[in-house]
Design brief:
single chain; two-stranded parallel sheet
């Protein structure tokens, strides 16, 4: 009985820690995608916008055609008008940014325990960020961002659910082994 109580207490602490890490990482993503001035973002744009700025935003900073922005970056790079770092920063940055959620979300929210639930969660989360960018006229609302964000998170989620990796993580975080699960 004492062992089960210790195990439950450790699991609760780990879940709380992962929930806190989830909140912190979410706040960092919100800052990065909506607020951070170093990337030309400013949520106060919505209060200053007129109809012309709205038209300009939708004309120049939204994309609903899959891989159009990726092609644009690659073409600009191959033509020499864009540095490789900028291409890598945009494409790989979008691919990597939501990868931590593959670990944080299932550990913080025990009900998100399947690929379908994780896919739904991460998709809705990324859509919310993209929609907030439209609402605040900051950053760009781009289907390529969605594809890269969700794709990166799903890749890591899949890797973390490979049996020996999942077992190792559970042993490290929760002290669980095959013998202690009974």
């Amino acid at each position: 009985m004492k062992y089960k109580t210790l195990k439950l207490t450790r699991q609760l602490y780990v879940r709380i820690i992962f929930f806190c890490l989830f909140v912190i990482y979410t706040l960092l993503i919100i800052d990065f995608t909506l607020i951070n001035d170093s990337f030309g973002r400013n949520i106060s744009n919505i209060f200053l916008a007129d109809s012309e700025q709205l038209r300009e935003y939708f004309a120049n900073k939204t994309n609903i055609i899959p891989f159009a922005t990726v092609k644009l970056f690659i073409n600009a790079f191959t033509q020499g008008s864009l540095e490789p770092f900028v291409v890598l920063q945009n494409i790989l940055g979008n691919f990597f940014v939501f990868m931590p959620f593959a670990l944080l979300v299932p550990k913080a929210f025990s009900r998100i325990n399947s690929t379908v639930k994780f896919l739904l969660f991460i998709s809705l989360f990324v859509i919310a960020i993209e929609c907030l960018q439209i609402v605040f006229l900051t950053g760009s609302a781009d289907i390529d961002d969605f594809i890269l964000n969700v794709g990166g998170a799903l890749l890591v989620y899949g890797l973390l659910n490979i049996k020996f990796i999942k077992r190792s993580i559970n042993k490290l975080l929760f002290g669980e082994t095959d013998e202690t699960k009974s």
